Amino acid sequence: MDRSQKAESVASLNAVFNEVGVVVVTRNLGMTVGQSTALRTKMRDANATYKVAKNSLASIALNDTPYKGLEDLLEGPTGLAWSSDPVAAAKAVVDFAKTNDKLEIVGGSMGGQLLDEAGIKALAALPSLDELRAKLVGLVNAPATKVVQLVNAPASKLARVFGAYAAKDAA
């Protein structure tokens, strides 16, 4: 990797760190190419990204970002996972780490708040942004359906009474 490629990589990572909601630092303990591909697919499905970066370049890219404190976690073969949704990357990494012992969660950060492994697992246990939106829509929609049911209830009762009188007259 020459100097211009390194500068481009640092600038790209710095832009990412200034935009995302969470960064998770992992340690790769000898994953195969197939396992790495599976992890990247899982991350992509969760609208998150996983990248293996040189520690020195990632450390430089962390400067002037809310994630500056992550420099201490960048030791050994590390990978970085990030997403705009504060829960998506953590959830995908924790789910993958449950089934693969070659991926170790080191820690991470949400905004300026540093998180250890337990913090990342707790973050992964929270509902995602999409799940929260669905619950909110359901809560907003529920009163509207109840109003419609209440408005229609007298009319349906009246229709049943008329139907009963019609059946009585027919008999």
From TrEMBL:
Keywords: Ribonucleoprotein, Ribosomal protein, RNA-binding, rRNA-binding. It comes from the Bacteria. One of its GO terms (cellular component) is ribosome. InterPro entries: Ribosomal_uL10, Ribosomal_uL10-like_sf, Ribosomal_uL10_bac, Ribosomal_uL10_bac_type, Ribosomal_uL10_CS_bac. Gene3D superfamilies: 3.30.70.1730, 6.10.250.290. NCBIfam families: PRK00099.1-1. Forms part of the ribosomal stalk, playing a central role in the interaction of the ribosome with GTP-bound translation factors. Belongs to the universal ribosomal protein uL10 family. Part of the ribosomal stalk of the 50S ribosomal subunit. The N-terminus interacts with L11 and the large rRNA to form the base of the stalk. The C-terminus forms an elongated spine to which L12 dimers bind in a sequential fashion forming a multimeric L10(L12)X complex. This is Large ribosomal subunit protein uL10.
